[in-house]
């Protein structure tokens, strides 16, 4: 089975052309291909599929085999993949995801896609949309993890996030505490957790623990959630580019006053490969 390894700011996935169908169990394949050191290695797999309502459809599966609704870094790589593999000649694309339709603007130079801007749609703070078990919007709301009180802001970017501000994000042992946030009973569908340091009004630093994957080098929807949280909490400004620095690189996020979000960042191809796998139809 042919695949392409790609990453967006170090958030690396294994991309598979499934325009003619999915001849395997994607949940199982993700758990087989994703382990580092023992297989191809990555944060999961991304299937590029045909769509009846958009240019293409993206399905993504975390390294534990669970299917995710949306990944901002992965969708940029999908745009690069379909253009550079001559599956489209369009520089503006609509991609179907489990969290809705997303519009991509591809930035081309010398025939290659160097970066992509994604219209991520409108963020939601409504508890039932995230979901979070709260009566009102969960903004700088105290909650306890392992006996420690944290203050979090819950945001949906089509998937659930909670943003926590700290002065020191680099001493955290996310491998130890991350799952306690992910599986916190306040979040019935689990949650992605962003640990954010505010540098100034236009720059944030962030680490992320993603549900189903653990700590990753970057999370596009997480960077968007951090920017949304930062404007509503007064740390950053609306309609102003916000640089979110992650382990793997920097994403630029703009949030308008209606909480519509646009994200711009790189998309990088690493290599093409072939994986020996006994296919089983989904």
From TrEMBL:
Localization, UniProt: Cytoplasm
Listed InterPro entries: DAP_epimerase_AS, DAP_epimerase_DapF
Pathway assigned to this chain's UniProt record: Amino-acid biosynthesis; L-lysine biosynthesis via DAP pathway; DL-2,6-diaminopimelate from LL-2,6-diaminopimelate: step 1/1
PROSITE patterns, per the entry: DAP_EPIMERASE
Its EC number(s): 5.1.1.7
GO terms for MF: diaminopimelate epimerase activity
GO annotation (BP), single: lysine biosynthetic process via diaminopimelate
Keyword entries, A-Z: Amino-acid biosynthesis, Cytoplasm, Isomerase, Lysine biosynthesis
Site (Could be important to modulate the pK values of the two catalytic cysteine residues): 161, 210
Active site residues according to the UniProt entry: 71, 219
Reaction it catalyzes: (2S,6S)-2,6-diaminopimelate = meso-2,6-diaminopimelate
Cellular component, GO, one term: cytosol
One Pfam family from the record: DAP_epimerase
Residue sites binding substrate per the record: 11, 62, 72-73, 159, 192, 210-211, 220-221
PANTHER family the record matches: DIAMINOPIMELATE EPIMERASE (PTHR31689:SF0), DIAMINOPIMELATE EPIMERASE, CHLOROPLASTIC (PTHR31689)
Family: Belongs to the diaminopimelate epimerase family.
UniProt subunit comment: Homodimer.
Function per UniProt: Catalyzes the stereoinversion of LL-2,6-diaminopimelate (L,L-DAP) to meso-diaminopimelate (meso-DAP), a precursor of L-lysine and an essential component of the bacterial peptidoglycan.
Protein name: Diaminopimelate epimerase
Species name: Treponema rectale
């Amino acid at each position: 089975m042919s695949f392409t390894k790609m990453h967006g700011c170090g958030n690396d996935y294994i991309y598979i052309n499934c325009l003619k169908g999915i001849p395997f169990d994607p949940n199982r394949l993700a758990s087989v291909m994703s382990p580092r050191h023992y297989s191809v290695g990555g944060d999961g797999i991304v299937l590029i599929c045909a769509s009846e309502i958009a240019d293409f459809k993206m399905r993504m599966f975390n390294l534990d085999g669970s299917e995710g609704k949306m990944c901002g870094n992965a969708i940029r790589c999908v745009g690069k993949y379909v253009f550079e593999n001559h599956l489209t000649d369009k520089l503006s694309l609509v991609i179907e995801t489990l969290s809705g339709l997303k519009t991509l603007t591809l930035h081309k130079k010398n025939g290659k896609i160097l970066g992509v801007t994604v219209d991520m749609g409108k963020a939601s703070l409504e508890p039932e949309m995230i979901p979070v078990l709260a009566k009102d919007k969960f903004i700088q709301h105290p909650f306890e993890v392992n006996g420690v009180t944290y203050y979090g802001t819950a945001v949906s970017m089509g998937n659930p996030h909670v943003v926590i501000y700290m002065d020191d994000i680099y001493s955290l042992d996310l491998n130890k505490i991350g799952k306690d946030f992910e599986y916190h009973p306040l979040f019935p569908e689990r949650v992605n957790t962003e640990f954010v340091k505010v540098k100034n009004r236009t720059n944030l630093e962030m680490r992320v623990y993603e549900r189903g994957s653990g700590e990753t080098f970057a999370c596009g929807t997480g960077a968007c959630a951090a920017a949304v949280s930062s404007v509503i909490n007064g740390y950053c400004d609306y309609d102003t580019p916000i640089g979110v620095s992650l382990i793997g690189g920097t994403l630029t996020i703009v949030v308008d006053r209606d909480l519509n979000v646009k994200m711009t960042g790189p998309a990088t191809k690493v290599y093409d490969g072939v994986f020996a796998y006994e296919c089983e139809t989904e």
